[in-house]
Write a structure and sequence with these properties.
Layout: E1 3-5, E2 17-22, E3 26-31, H1 35-38, E4 46-49, E5 60-69, H2 74-84, E6 88-97, E7 100-109, H3 112-123, E8 128-134
Parallel strand pairs: 1-3
Antiparallel strand pairs: 2-3, 2-4, 5-7, 5-8, 6-7
Length: 138
């Protein structure tokens, strides 16, 4: 059976997960608190309890949103901290509002512990005000 990871919630190893069998799509893995599942969009499938394999070696995409002080060099500091935490940036976008900037990143992580390590590295940066793991790509 084909296994896919839901793009609505982007589960990563360590997240509590649930599987939904969809006709023609196979098993779709979601986080247990996925907003799409809560809205009932997956009621048409059969739900299964699933667990992570202990030997996963691939990376997973995760979305982070950072609220930072709008100051010169802050993007470079954030990118350097992400690289030092051994993650890769797949995508970045930003929107500035007065003294703050919202930075949205899609990062490659190994698991939940790796993500926590990255977030700890980012919190050390004085210009970083808030960090949120975003449950959808929007």
């Amino acid at each position: 059976m084909a296994v896919q990871f839901a793009t609505c919630c982007r589960p990563i190893p360590g997240d509590p997960i649930i599987g939904v069998i969809k006709s023609g799509q196979g098993l779709i893995v979601h986080t247990h608190d996925c907003p799409t599942l809560r809205k009932g969009h997956s009621n048409s499938g059969q739900w299964l309890d699933v667990v992570w394999d202990k030997n996963i070696t691939r990376t997973f995409a995760v979305n982070l949103k950072l609220l930072v002080a709008n100051q010169r060099g802050v993007l470079a500091k954030v990118a350097a901290a992400i690289a030092e935490a051994e993650s890769n940036i797949q995508n970045v976008s930003f929107a500035s509002e007065d003294q703050y900037t919202a930075l949205k990143f899609t990062l490659e992580v190994n698991n939940r512990q790796h993500l926590a390590s990255i977030m700890r590295s980012l919190r050390i940066i004085p210009e970083v005000i808030r960090i949120i793991r975003v449950q959808n790509a929007g």
